[in-house]
Write a structure and sequence with these properties.
Distance between the termini: 80 Å
Number of helices: 9
Largest sheet: none
Shape: globular
Oligomer: single chain
Structural class: mainly alpha
Order of helices and strands: HHHHHHHHH
Number of strands: 0
């Protein structure tokens, strides 16, 4: 016998079943804009997945998942795509500028912490000891 939860789970995609708590964070307008830009740039080509994979230095399977909207590129792949494709770099930079406008006047939260803690950036005035 199936309970309501099991029936509901079967109606969902595998990603929804695996990560239900993250669905709000996974489907964002930023993600959609990025995936749409990748599709516009590569989908018209006959070997789109292979070309995309080569540009991102990833596997064709990963590229097919990006083109289908199943997954989005990780940071490393995104940087490789931005380096190889100006339109994707422009789209990502536009997203960054949009976020900066939304956060005008706010400072980076890490800046306040950086002044209180030194990460070895100060020079020490110790002497070198010889092993003789």
């Amino acid at each position: 016998m199936w309970n309501d939860r099991a029936i509901h789970a079967l109606k969902q995609s595998k990603n929804d079943r695996k990560f239900p708590q993250m669905m709000g964070a996974v489907h964002t307008p930023v993600r959609d804009r990025l995936l749409n830009m990748i599709k516009r740039e590569f989908e018209p080509f006959r070997f789109a997945a292979e070309m995309l994979a080569r540009s991102a230095m990833k596997t064709p399977r990963a590229a097919r998942n990006w083109l289908s909207g199943t997954n989005a590129p990780d940071a490393e792949a995104l940087i490789e795509l931005m380096a190889s494709c100006d339109s994707i770099a422009d789209e990502v930079n536009a997203l960054v500028q949009q976020r900066r406008k939304e956060r005008e006047g706010e400072k980076c939260r890490g800046l306040n912490l950086g002044s209180a803690v030194s990460h070895g950036s100060e020079r020490t005035t110790g002497h070198l000891h010889s092993s003789m």
